[in-house]
Amino acid sequence: MATEVPSDEFIKANYGALAKGFAASLSSNPKSTEFIAPGSNMEALIEHWADDSSRSEESNVKAPLVLLAEAIAEKGDSSITVEKHPASGEQKVVFDSANNFYVTVVQSGDKLLISGIGSVLGQHITEQFEKQISLTASN
To answer: Can you list the alpha helix ranges (DSSP code H) found in 1-40?
Structure first.
């Protein structure tokens, strides 16, 4: 199904379902791409994180996607702001303005999908994952 740039109203009405659904889908399948836009930067990031996901299974730590879902779900949809991403033109949903954490989203039918994440958020997820791995290795 083709994707389109969602309206601010659509995002505000559907972001909570995205946050909860993304977390729920990953809790049952840590490699789920149900809430990821096909062909997006996020899909490419998942491929990049694939080795980390395998390492997480071996080390019994949370995979990067699970850490991302937890970060998104933790803030919920009460304090989000929506703006146009200057480079991609996609909608940018800032869910933690203090840390500049955001995801970019697209609409596919009546569903909101994640198409990318901000670099600061990506770095935070990677650091959290590496921290878990190093703590596990030192035990």
So the answer is: 8-28
User: For 75-91, what is each residue's pLDDT tens digit?
Assistant: 766 688 999 988 888 89
pLDDT, tens digit, 9 for 90 and up, residues 117-134: 999 999 999 899 889 888
Q: How many residues does the chain have?
A: 139
Written as one letter, the residue type at 90 is E
Residue 119 is which amino acid? Answer: S
Q: Which two tokens stand for residue 103?
A: 């995801």
CA dist 68 and 128 (Å) reads: 10
**What dihedral angle (degrees, nearest 10) is formed by the CA atoms of 47, 88, 113, 4?**
-130
- Report the alpha-carbon distance of residue 75 to residue 16 in Å, rounded: 10
Tokens representing 121 are 């958020």
What number of helices (H) and strands (E) belong to the chain? 5, 4
Please, which residues have CB within 8 angstroms of residue 54's CB and are 6 or more apart in sequence? Answer: none
Cα→Cα distances 91→13, 28, 62, 110, Å: 14, 28, 28, 16
